[in-house]
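Reading group handout, session on sequence-to-structure problems. Before we discuss, look at one worked example. The prompt was deliberately terse, the way you'd type it at a terminal:

> structure DUF3099 domain-containing protein

The input record follows.
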Amino acid sequence: MVVVSRSPRSSGKEAEPVLITEAAPSFEDEHAARKRKYALMMGLRFPCLVLAGVFYHTWWLALLFVVLSVPLPWVAVLIANDRPPRKAEKVNHFQREVKAIEHREHRVIDG
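And the output record:
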């Protein structure tokens, strides 16, 4: 998603946009999208039940519409409560080469 914002150093004139290409959608946008999905799925339940009533003479088709309408509320709630996965962030670990502090021999003088 591309988010465009105005430069803070604008002096009232048309400022140049600043692009943020890796930005996640805002919480409000994400919440609104989840609410739309929930409303759509719950809206599909009523037509399924109406179609089951319309096709009551064809028992297998009516049963199919009823079976489709039963799990819709559960699926709608699961999808509405699900947030997109977080971005995988690469963790930088400190890596050092294993070296001795000093690599020469020390002589001990008795005296």
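Points for discussion. First: The longest strand covers residues 3-6. Second: Residues 25-84 form one domain.
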